[in-house]
Amino acid sequence: MSRRLQKELRDLETNGTPVGIKLLSADDFQTWYLSIEVLGDTVYQGEVFALRFRFDSTYPIVAPSVTFVVDDQYTAPIHPHVYSNGHICASILGNEWSPVLTVNAVCLTLQSMLASCKRKERPPDNDRYVSHAPSDPRKTRWDFHDDSAVLYVRALAPYARRLRVTRRRAQELLVPQTYISAYQKPRSGSQITRAVNTVGTCTSSYGVPDVTW
């Protein structure tokens, strides 16, 4: 784990983070904080959020625990797939996780998820889930009902160089095949764009017995 995170941290410090994303702190290999802002004309214009990444010895085989920070300084974005306690319903953090995915890739996906939002609203089961939620969202059983949320994720050429594979193969690794709904040719030599289904309508059932969603 530490070797992988050392490499990711070195890449973040050397190559920087994507536009709208900043590394706030990475003092150890257990917890990292990054800020995320959605630029342009979106429902979150002017708002800045913070993500908390918690790693354990299973990373990168298993996804890190990723939540939006909720404290005196930050709040969780009001979004159909983000609960008020900061937990995120996104398949990239669960059954669609791939060991090739990085902190940068997760941030890009969540930034795209926010950018695609047209109306601010909480998940329909927000109050019930928050009252029963585990501290680690990875213990939640998420149900993804809808594949209509099409988002764009950009895989930058440096990923391919670091992985020593072709850019197209790097894209396939960064975005699990089950996400893919369409493909667009690269707009330039430095970027590949795929349309992907990252999250749909989400509900949870952790700690709520005998409930049908």
UniProtKB/TrEMBL annotation:
Instruction: Return the protein name.
Output: Uncharacterized protein
Report the source organism: Phlebia brevispora
